[in-house]
Write a structure and sequence with these properties.
about 20% helix, about 210 residues, 16 strands, three-stranded antiparallel beta sheet, Glucose Permease (Domain IIA), alpha+beta, eight-stranded antiparallel beta sheet, 3 helices
Length: about 210
């Protein structure tokens, strides 16, 4: 298992400080406690920023989950179908491309930091919109910041060509990810389902 590069400052800084406090503590209870808490925070960040190996699900016209988490909502509009997923602090927080295709746009939107499960979070919170296009249509992966997630990081740019399951970004701490899909997507998940990035089949395009 590897660690995403964005996690190293959150791992190394508290570890070094915690180690220093523990060495300097001697019999000082306050420094010992502070050092122990910092070491624990470092170990938690190793877990949080983990990048486990996964076997990407393969198949024709599949749309895979772009993230790990719990399905909040499955909905549709006149033109799209939408799946919203909540990521707790215990979930893997990197995102993968739900389909093979070309990145046509990456847009950052400044916003608020409501709790990820708030109904308005996907509208008003800070977010990145990664738009991917292929022969079946247009897909938008929306990385949404939450009350703890203060940074959505995109690893792709317009013009990049992706395979299904390729890594496209990470969100730092609890958050939400939405996937907007073409109307003819046959959705395979429902509210409260647990999903795994690059593994769980979100939907299949009807031909």
């Amino acid at each position: 298992m590897s660690i995403v590069k964005e996690g190293y400052p959150f791992i190394l800084i508290p570890f070094v400080l915690g180690f220093f406090f523990l060495v300097a503590a001697s019999s000082g209870a306050v420094l010992t406690l502070a050092g122990s808490l910092l070491i624990f925070a470092s170990l938690f960040c190793i877990y949080f920023f983990r990048d486990p190996e996964v076997k990407i699900t393969q198949g024709e016209n599949l749309i895979l989950s772009p993230c790990n988490g719990t399905v909040l909502e499955v909905s549709e509009t006149e033109t799209d179908k939408i799946i919203r997923v909540f990521l707790s602090v215990l979930d893997v927080h990197l995102q993968r491309s739900p389909v093979a295709g070309k990145v046509v746009n990456v847009e950052y939107k400044k916003g608020k930091f409501l709790k990820a499960m708030e109904p308005q979070a996907h509208i008003v919170n800070e977010q990145n919109l990664i738009t991917i296009e292929n022969e079946n249509g247009i897909y938008v992966v929306k990385q949404i910041a939450g009350i703890l997630a203060r940074r959505c990081v995109s690893w792709v740019k317009p013009g990049d060509v992706l395979n299904i399951g390729d890594k496209i970004g990470v969100i730092k701490f609890s958050s939400q990810v939405d996937l907007i899909m073409p109307k003819n997507a046959d959705v395979k998940v429902k509210k409260d389902d647990k999903v795994v990035s690059g593994v769980t089949i979100f939907a299949e395009i009807k031909k």
